[in-house]
Amino acid sequence: MDYLLLPAFSFFIGIIVGLTGIGGASLITPMLIFVFQVPPSIAISSDVVAATLMKVVGGVKHWQQKTLDLEVVKWLSMGSVSGSLLGVGVLHQLRQSGEHNLDNLLLRLLGVMILIVTLTALIQMLLMTFFPKVNLPELPKLNLKTNQGRFLTLLIGAILGFCVGMTSVSSGSMFALAIIAFFRLDARKLVGTDITQAAILLIFTSLGHLTLGTVDWSLVIPIWIGSVPGVLIGAKLCEITPQRPLRFIIYSILMMVSWKLVGQA
To answer: Where in the cell is it found (predicted)?
Structure first.
């Protein structure tokens, strides 16, 4: 593998993440699989660990700024961490049983998850662009002061966390959609809550993937070297770049990537 190319590609992806907010896992994991021919199990585990640093740095910053909702973070995290560890446990069982080709299974799961995340975001963007006055039915707002609200929050977190534990995808994007749908936070607290929750989730998910023995530090460190400065530059460019055309192009690319992942399995 050319380890000079990996930081360069990661830098480019970091810019995209900082520029558009589109999750890095949807881009970095397929890059490792298709460009660098990394087995899916190693690509997913290494990407989970690589993504943790950026999320933790962002989460600490939002914690200091108080631009997050601690109650939402707490209850979503309790559900997502449990779900994620369950997902890692399933990977352990599949690996030990040997009944399934783990890499082929993960290719399909990864492709399906990226497709779901991309289609959801694309539909939302198209509706906001072409039908801004359409009043879609709203999902009920969850009240975390009630047992029902807490239980449903734990359940949502557990389902999405399980998907993250299995595939590394959606630690940010799908949780952001859930926070928008069920908690109606303002824009600043939405971003901070999403990043902080994802940071907690990925810390535990990373520990789980480390026990699988599929984390390759020779991949993680070059990704850090490239993606962290890329994210910072992308965040600066975000102020002057038109978002919707750029997002549409990237969503279209992600849809093709997801079909290729499923088809290659």
So the answer is: Cell membrane; Membrane
